Amino acid sequence: MSANPLAPDWLVPPEDPNALAAGVWPANAARAASGALSIAGADVRDLAREFGTPLYVVDEDDVRSRARRIRTAFAEAFGAPVAVYYAGKAFLSTEIARWVTAEGLNLDVCSGGELAVAVAAGVDPARLGMHGNNKSHAEIDRCVELGVGAIVLDSVVEVDRVAEAARRHGTVQEVRLRINSGVHASTHEYLATAREDQKFGIPLSEAGDAVAAIRAHDTLRFRGLHSHIGSQIFGADGFAEAARRLLALHAELLAGGEIPELNLGGGFGIAYTAADEVTPIEETARALAAVVTAECARLGIPVPAIAIEPGRAVIGPSTITLYEVGTTKPVAVSTGSTTAERLYVSVDGGMSDNLRPALYAVDYTVRLAARTSDAAPALVRIAGKHCESGDIVVRADYLPSDVAPGDLVAVAATGAYCWSLASNYNYLGRPAVVAVRDGKARVIVRRETEADLLARDTGVTP
Question: Which residues are registered as beta bridge partners of 398?
């Protein structure tokens, strides 16, 4: 079929609108003989009946496998163990924390709440890293009290705060220093975190003074530099350039004392659509290892211990969101001299369970979940039920044209920054999260009820 003129250039009309693009869907996603989608052997129709919709469905073995693959890829590339910190901000629950740490990863948190989840999961505090550009005094004190492995200092102001907390608790706290490397990653403006005019980190030119301030405190131990250039980045060039800049600074700072580690951050991209060309993690690891090894040799310094912080690459592709279609509405749109039609498909969730399309204008993939169809493909826009015209879950994709009220649809790659950004806008309860493994499903985060929504309202009569 020819492309709908309303479709974006990257979206190619599919030969089969029922097909599941490799790399976009969970590793254990498949179509059953009935046409229904299954995740790790669990039929999505059964999941919807038992747990309701919207529903996040996580392929547990896929999460674990991705965690192992990243850890193995970097260890093999560097020829030594690499500390891999799962970035909890992507999606964190006690179960997720237990999975990733069981697979050999550490855990990165960036708030008191995320720290509380890690503690509730039984994660050894020594395996935690604490981020954040504005850590409260209470959060810093709690980290030091618990023995968090490393606190990432984001400003000079935090140096004295952490040093004083360590003094109160009679300990020496290990710290990293986040550096704004100035590398402009090729990603959305809101996802780039190393450009000059933004809130994170300390400029390269000010790092020497900051490290001197750290070393002046006997209650702090400088563990090393930290960099994070952004998220959803394809290719290794940006990461490699950031590593070069940090190693040059690392070499200068060695004159003042030991620096055991270099944290290269994360931000490795994943596929949200078939058009996304993902860099294999092994390729990224080899490229970074080559740069680090070559630069250290050129600078005449030992290769430091390496740490990285992937989140999206671990959890993102492992998860789908199930919705039930409520209404469909064909809309005629003028495109210059012609008119084309887009089919609006409204579902029972929206920006309260996936804010990313409204926040970042990102694209997702959608498929019929409970059946397949031989109907011709139609350009669709998956809309949420919120009172906002920008409440769009999937801006453009093709579904069989007979998609109808009552159908289940599945949106792929919703593991990262969907549940964690979820809200109660329009007083919708946040969806449940179920983990599936070997055909069995269990709730790892329960669905919010109306009682939950009213629980904090002090005007409600008991």
Answer: 379
